């Protein structure tokens, strides 16, 4: 039996994933969390084989949780299930220690296959991610500027380019507006951009958000 913990800040999303996994006779959900703090508390009392983890959590992100587990040498296999397209976070998550990456917009069956795959200690990637991995190996010198951003800086970039105000971003990420402003300033400096308009154009040209 594969024991799974779900971590997503949206209860409806967790319910959907839980119901999907419930149809698999070899998988059981042993716990759920809505943010980083709940997840850490839960994992101190409940063991699991696979952690199904969302990236966009309030406060500390799913990637923060991923890095923390990796630093601690945790044996738990992490499967990232996110609303973000593969080309934004998949490679970053896999390099950070994730065993797989699934988009929430994919077929429900995909999550079941992914959980089974990573539980065996194997990587789960879609054909799109496999292609990106090949391209990153064959053309390592073509790294784009935004790939040098930290996880939180990239998240801030995408949210600003999606039209969200700093106050909205701060509320969604459970951060202070001042902290979000610092992330914005770092993004502008690292990408050598002057304002939000240039930032948005950059994000569209690089496929980080839709036009």
TrEMBL record:
The keyword Zinc does not apply. CDD domains: LuxR_C_like, REC_NarL-like. The modification 4-aspartylphosphate is found at residue 54. It comes from the Bacteria. Residues 3-119 form the Response regulatory domain. Residues 142-207 form the HTH luxR-type domain. Keywords: DNA-binding, Phosphoprotein, Transcription, Transcription regulation, Two-component regulatory system. GO terms for molecular function: DNA binding. This is DNA-binding response regulator. The lineage of its organism: Bacteria, Pseudomonadati, Pseudomonadota, Betaproteobacteria, Burkholderiales.
